[in-house]
Amino acid sequence: MIHLTIDDKSIEATAGRTLLEACRENGIQIPTLCYHPALEPYGACRLCVVEIYKEEQSSRLVAACAYPCEEGLNVKTNSKAVQRNRRVVAELLLASGYDTPEIVALASEFGVKEARYKMPQADSCIICGLCVRACKEIVGISAISLINRGINKKVSPPFEETSPTCIGCGTCVLICPTGYIKLRDVFGSHSIYRYSSDYDRAQCRICSDLNMSSKFNQLIEGVTSDAASYGISGDQNG
Amino acid sequence: MQKIISEINEIVQDEALGKGSIIPYFEEIQGRFRYLPPEALILVCEHLNIPLSQAYAVATFYHAFSLRPKGKHCMNICMGTACHVRGSPQLLDRLETKLGVKAGSTTRDKLFTLETVNCLGACALGPIVVIDGEYSGQMTPQKSDALLRRIMRSEEKEQRG
Amino acid sequence: MLHPMEYQAIRMGNGMEDDTSPRIGVIICNCGQEIAGLLDTEDLRQLTADIRGVVYTNCEAYPCSKDGQARIRQAIEDHGLERVLIAGCAPRLVEKLFRETVESAGIRGNYLEVVDIREGCVYVHPNDTKAAFQQAADIIEIGVARLGTITLPHEYCAEIVRKALVIGSGLSGLTTAIALADEGIRVTLVEQDSRLGGKTFPLQSGAAELITQQVKKIKTHPNVHIMLNSHVTSVSGQPGNYTVSACQGNNTSALNVGAVIVASGAEPQKLNGYDWYDRSRVRTHLEFDAELDDASKTEHGLVQSDVVMVLDGGEINGGRGSPLNSNSTIRQAIRVKQLSPDANVTLLFRDLYLGVQGGPGEDGFMYAQELGIMFFRYYKGRPPVIHDSTIEMHDRQTGEITRIPFDRVVFSLPIMPREGTDSLAGLLHLPQDEQGFLIEPRFPLRPDDASADGVYVSGSVHLPVDTAETLFQAYITSARTKHFLAQETICKNSPVAGIDPGLCTGCGACAQVCPTQAIQMIKRDGLLSLSEVDELRCIGCGNCLVVCPVKAIALPGWSDQTILAQISAALETTRYQNSFNGVSENKPRIVALTCEWSAYSAAEIAGARRESKFPDVKIIRMNCSARLDPDHILWAFLNGADGVFVGICNPGECHYRTGNLYARERVKRLKNQLADHGVDPRRLHLEFMSGDDYKKFIGTVTRFANQLSVEQTSLKSEELVHPGGWNGKTIRNRSMGA
Amino acid sequence: MANIISPVELDPFEIIQEAFKGPDHPSITICGGTGCRVLGSEKLSEAFREEFDRQNIQATLDFDIKTTGCHGFCEQGPLVVIRPSGIMYAHVAAKDVPEIVERTIIGGKIIDRLLYMDPQSGEKIEHEQDVPFYQFQQRVILDLNGLIDPQKIEEYIAEGGYTALQTVLSTMPPEQVIDEIKASGLRGRGGAGFPTGYKWELCKNQPGDVKYIICNADEGDPGAYMDRSIMEGNPHRVLEGMIIGAYAIGAQTGYVYIRNEYPLAVKHLREAIAQAESNGFLGRNILKSGFDFSVGIKLGSGAFVCGEETALIASIEGRVGEPRPRPPFPAEKGLWGKPTNINNVKSWASVPIIITRGADWFANIGTGTSTGTMIFSLVGNINNTGLVEVPMGISLRDLIYNIGGGIPNGKEFKAAQIGGPSGGCIPAEHLDVHIDYESLSALGAIMGSGGLVVADEDVCMVDFARYFMTFTQEESCGKCVPCRVGTKAMLSTLERICNGEGKPGDVEYLIELGEEIKRASLCGLGQTAPNPVLSTIRYFRQEYEAHIIDETCPSKVCKGLITYSVIPENCTGCMVCLRDCPENAISGEKQKPHQIDVNLCTRCGMCKSVCKFDAIMVT
Checking CA distances to D469, which of A46, C18, C314, C474 falls within 20 to 30 Å? Predict the structure, then answer.
């Protein structure tokens, strides 16, 4: 067991816990955005910063979601410095997502109404990486990734075309905090023929096999209609 | 195309690059073709059995990799501090206007690719321009014009015969 | 005689009472204040505690936190829990996490159930504690009912034979074979011709050279065994371990391989059906190329002055073109222009495939236009008509007929899969498209049971492609094969159908509807044959269970017993009627049978988006709508549902290929039957939707609910005997004054 | 673990040293650093070879030709130094070669016109050691750069190379090595200045047998190139340092992560590794001590952020170079999850020196807390651009005026940017600051990896800050919000100010933003990115205000705030500017004063740069 002080409460935590976990275990609320219990800590949104004091060192801000509990650590989860910092981060989030209700709401939670700097074009994706990590760690498919660098970073399937591996499970959609990501963005064809045509070829959007092309469809119709008759138990015995 | 694909395959088969990391393969391919063809990304991933999305992320993250084919002649202008204070911005302006493209892109005739680089470490001789791997120091807009003219002339010669 | 359904129902009932019933633990997540803020989780816990079979209940602040998980493990040990239900957030977010948790405590992952009282409940009723509570209670009850009845799928493993069979020795076949052989995999190459090299399309530069190189290389390769003049006659066994018999002349040899690569290629169609044309003026693509060769040798060059090329990618008989013949035709047209610049060259096409953007194909097209080659487009249903000296074209823009004079018509005919492809498709259970091109089978299910069955398709037998693309595909195929063969064994513990030989009547209905041809009929003594499931190929959609007239098929986790239990649990209200003063009667009771890939995920997302205006439906999650048995719906009605909502994938999006189509058909028929028996068919509603289309889900469900509640006022109850002859049980009929 | 090696076993080692002619052997050394190569030093050495063959010098005079690493004095390149006398010729061209051979090498006379002239005193200086640029330096790490041929391991050995390794392997247990490094007070030269010895100990004490060490040569700071010239000029010393470190830490594998913009350095390093292996300094059972160690090269792919430890590791593992939160530190969970120790090139290169010369000797250089020497690359508005190695604690004034030779064209010193885009600027009033970790950070700058950019009075500090911000903003990996959006916000604010669209309150906004970005960012890049802006605001706030309030750029740099115009009385109507103006904004005819169309003018400064009569005025 590790002993530390959070908001002047002395707290015990098992080794290997992060500050965030320790806080939640003890009912101390910390705002998070890019954190999800089912995923590895990422430490990108910086909303969960807390101020830590180590002996003979000046205090500093660390991301609670990733910082492990340390013996004798003194943590302030809501100090002036923390509040100031969260405000600025929230304002920066607002700078790009000023037209997204979710982000506006989030920002106002920290008392930010207006962003002093606005990005040229608004974008509701905040690069929290939840969808990408969920697709990798939960689904195990890695159909999407964060591409480009810096301010141009964005979520996208390879080649910014529809994804060849997406299974359309919708986990990314479910986990997205701002409702930015839509299934159709990642849905794609598995086929390794890369030729486009002016045909409206009905193609299975999940497995992409051409089994859904009109003719095949009719075939299936035939099968189903015969087969379905078995489905109604009533039909057999009378 | 056919050639490129079989060449890529050779690179992919090269055990020496291995150890599961895609970057050495990309460097090799980039070095060979001066860009990463989509086929290359796909083949490398299939070979190493890693998700294509990861490869694409890597290819777009590092500036050393380019997904678009580069021009015949690559112009790198050093934007390091020393070169900056010695007027590399003017130099860049000049070349951009001359070639009619912004830094990081290729001319329509696929002849030149104009790029900037952060410090080549030849600070004493800035501004530096590297054309097809050949350094030329203490550049001025005037000198750069001359350089361009020289290349154009040699190009014309080639076309004639 | 007892109806099987009813038999199930009784078994279910007993199952819950006897003391051998499994020990279920329920953990309710407060999610900090997210859930506990609205619900009194403690009340919920007490309520849950006296559900039959539940021996342990607990409320956790954050079960997903490391400490929370530790406590769950502890509880499993202390109370000897056998199955665990966690009521928290959306399963698809935390299922994997908790699966690992319980497995580390010695419970098989299939015995974990995560039910969603956050997205599915709290977020839906943000300010209606009572409704939320009822919803949550129901959700948990449904979950417990499921846990009480599920059985374990049994783990299946098979050794992988590190050998490969390559069918076809064209460019892709050769390349794949060599690539695999270089990896140290023993390869058998089967070619139906008497020589290697296949039918690689001649009109492309470098093709011939490449082939000869490859042939030379493969002939001396130690790891390659070549069989000429031979073809595959039968394929048996399962992925990773196929037994293929190839017949060479009149002696047949049996091969044992882990993977099969089909590269049998394609070739241009013969000029069949066009024979009545004046063959002195009509040529095929290849014939004309020979003519051009001669012409280029002679000094007077090409004699024809009006050349019309008809690019027929098979569209004329409703097929699909390919980049290969589009491009080669354009190249040929260019060649004509180069030979005699003042000749009029016209190219009639239905569809041009120019290949990858900015590729050589597009450049060629540009160049052709610069040369003044005319491109005319004809449309489906109005193919060009060839007269003696003119071709009649219908111009869509002007709507009038244009006649193009010619002294040479060149048909570039569709490139079709080589003969024998169909039989291969049959042997390997490979789907084909209209023109008979093969389709690589792929079932993107949950990642852990995505099925790779060691059959790969490469090269022009997919779709005619040029040499570059062929090489590319060949390399990809070889890489995939390599990785498939590299794994020692191929294992599967996801639910697959199992047949009870004692009950099977051998009617073959299941084999007919299996989307993956995983069921075969095998002989057995006596008259009746017996159906057998290939466990590695089965994707567990449950279609066969529905069609089996005697219910002889079991699918662990998705048995009738389980689903019926969930339905009953959903509709049973008595328990919290006394804890709360009853459910408001005017609210219709709706059961939603949802495919987890479409409606279920849509519902979750609706919650996640905090879409609160969303009626109270009892959502039951199904693996695939193929599993949806009309009897389930009837059971719901029998248990007092006012309406049943069925939410399934859009056509073409079913993870199991066609489950949704079957479901649609079944619901359609059931509606008729209900009508016949005087039950208002509008009480059963089916909706297609995609996995993230939460707006549609809300919309349709709400409309359905309103319709029901409106009509509820005019209730007249009358006895109705279920067609299946359930002794005694009746559906309370609610006619909607229709 | 290290079994003592008997002298007998060392023979081959000594043989090399015997066989090889020492440093006093007559030789002519030509600088082969990238700088001088650009100026044609390769041609030069060719010319010398031909000349030597022609006159058969090698035989008669037994004179060697050496292409060495960078001498540091790039401004004067190509440099040629004749040893042992030490005569230094600057700006040597191929055509001078015959004369040099004829008169200096054979005749022993000095060619006056090729000598270096001190810009201050104006007198010619004959010998390298007397050149002020070198005089005030203390070349410890760079000492051999001008002497040996980096492509010949024998030369390094002849200069006492690899003796440190030999001592360590034969006489010192790992703990003792670490103690020695601790005692030397060596601190990480990568910029942060974490004590190297303790870092090693941390890594050594981690459980597990598999450990890695990494040499961070991803020198991304614009205007800093000392790592490169060490690896170009003396790669073996870096290797030796790494081997010793690996022995002390208990690592079996090491990597050098080096920018692929440094082809020459990579080449030399590859050769060095091969030579070291063939001579038994690398590979299995090094010097028969039973210790195995191998070094691989990983090329950086053009991402500044990969200089950050965790990003660098990610990059080596083949992932996107994004940093991850620390702890866990690489020493605990590094490359492929194994304990890993990362040090900068200069740190590794210092190790052999500490071992041979002793920790005390090393500790005596510099100040109490910052020991040893530091290499700076002097660039910007300074006479002697180049690499200088000075003891820690030297005053900025000495560095700039004595070694750097002051500011060109008699301009005034305005500020020095220390530590590149992560560092801060130091204004004239602090010229006498002693350069050590503490004093610098007190002034809002950092030691950084040693880039030192000098700005004269003509540099606009707002523009200066904007430049560095542009760099960091481009190089931000984009993972964490403060760095991704914050740097962008700061940059566009600065751009507004430079374009004359600044608003009151901008400065305060910049300060607030900067402070929070520093505190909140995930990695070193973000935590230091605002430094240039904050420090320029701290010392030159009035300039910012001038831009915002009076809408003028005091240094006449910011395009948005200046106009170019012709001074009629100076203009001779020579048409030069007219021809050179890229926008054709200048009109006028021969012999008549020209006019500049303000609307067309893009303020590129071309006209001013080409005008011989100083007739272009900026207001």
Answer: A46
C411-441 per-position pLDDT tens digit? 887 788 888 888 888 888 777 776 777 766 5
Residues present in chain A in total: 238
Judge whether residue C327 has pLDDT over 80.
Answer: yes
Q: How many domains does chain D have?
A: 5
pLDDT over 90 (residue C515):
no
* Relative orientation angle of helices D226-233 and D345-357, to the nearest 10 degrees: 60
Which residues does chain A have within 8 Å of residue B36's beta carbon, measured at their own beta carbons?
none
Q: What is the pTM of this model?
A: 0.87
Choose the closest CB to A151 out of D328, D488, D521.
D488
Q: Which candidate from C92, C469, C724 shows the least CB-CB separation from A171?
A: C92
Q: Which of A65, A37, A46 is nearest to A127 (CA)?
A: A46
Name the fold adopted by A125-191+199-216: Alpha-Beta Plaits (3.30.70)
- Comparing CB atoms, the residue among C359, C360, C476 nearest residue B46 is C476
Is A223 a residue whose pLDDT tops 50?
no
Among the listed residues B73, C173, B58, the one whose alpha carbon sits nearest the alpha carbon of residue B40 = B58
Q: Measured between CA atoms, how close is B45 to chain D, in angstroms?
A: 12
CATH, domain range A2-78: 3.10.20.740
Contact D325 A146 (CB under 8 A): no
- How do the domains of chain A map onto residue ranges? 2-78, 125-191+199-216
Instruction: Provide mean pLDDT across the span B146-157.
Output: 87
Share of chain D above pLDDT 70, in %: 96
Q: Which residue on chain C is closest to A194 by alpha carbon?
A: C356
The residue that leads in pLDDT, C17 or D604, is D604
Cis peptide before D84 (omega within 30 of 0): yes
The reply to whether B56 touches chain A by the CB within 8 Å rule is yes
Domain boundary among D420, D437, D456: D456
Token pair, residue D317, equals: 């593992």
Pairwise CA distance, residues A62 & A134, whole Å: 24
Q: Which amino acid is at B142?
A: Q
Taking an 8 Å Cβ-Cβ cutoff, which residues of chain C contact chain B? 179, 182, 206, 210, 359-360, 466-468, 471-472, 475-476, 479-480, 483
- CA distance, residue C612 to nearest chain A CA (Å): 15
How far apart, in Å, are the Cα atoms of D372 and each of D177, D313, D390, D420?
A: 17, 28, 9, 21
Q: Which of D328, D479, D516 sits opposite A88 (nearest CB)?
A: D516
Last residue of a domain, one of D402, D430, D456: D456
What is the ipTM score, two decimals?
0.86
One-character DSSP codes across C455-466 = EEE-GGGTS---
| Residues from chain B contacting residue D379 (CB–CB below 8 Å) | 80-82, 85, 123-124, 126
- What torsion, rounded to 10 degrees, do the Cα atoms C227, C229, C234, C240 define? 30
Contact criterion met (CB < 8 Å) for B9 and C479: no
Across the interface, which of A143, A148, A149 has its CB nearest the CB of B53?
A143
pLDDT reported for residue A210:
32
Could you tell me the strand order of the sheet in which A9-13 lies?
A: A9-13, A2-6, A74-76, A49-53, A60-63
Rounded Cα distance, D418 and D375, in Å? 12
Residue D2: pLDDT over 60: no
Q: Which domain holds residue D193?
A: 161-363
Mean pLDDT of C297-323: 72
What percent of chain D lies above the pLDDT cut of 90? 44
Task: Report CB contact under 8 Å: B61, A147.
Answer: yes
CATH (domain of D466): 1.20.1440.230
pLDDT digit string (tens) for A114-167?
Answer: 899 998 888 888 999 999 999 898 888 888 899 999 999 988 888 877 676 777
DSSP category for residue C471: H
